[in-house]
Design a protein that fits this description.
The chain is mostly helical and 94 residues long. The protein has helices at residues 37-44, 48-60, 66-81, 84-92.
């Protein structure tokens, strides 16, 4: 996995990737302990920005304006469409 992710060079030959590779380090001591498993899974699936937008818009809805409500609706629709809720559900079983 380290060779596929680009952290180690192959002993011989070459590795050519056609897509990005995401992985979680197996040594939990090497990882940032302040980041949750759910956050790591969302990030690996490219959903971290959408999750932050969703959570930020949730907090902004406290002002009760149509603008903040519409921002939440847009953020929630994007998160849902990109599989964010399914990713969060899979993280719970991890």
């Amino acid at each position: 996995m380290l060779t596929l992710s680009g952290e180690l060079r192959p002993a011989a030959g070459s590795v050519v990737g056609t897509a990005g590779v995401g992985h979680l380090p197996q040594d939990s001591r090497a990882a940032d302990q302040s980041v949750t498993v759910t956050d790591r899974i969302l990030s690996a699936r490219g959903l971290d920005v959408a999750a932050r937008a969703l959570h930020g818009s949730e907090a902004a809805m406290a002002d009760g304006t149509d603008r903040s409500m519409n921002a939440f609706v847009r953020a929630e629709a994007e998160f849902r469409a990109r599989g964010g809720y399914a990713a969060e559900t899979s993280a719970v079983g991890t």
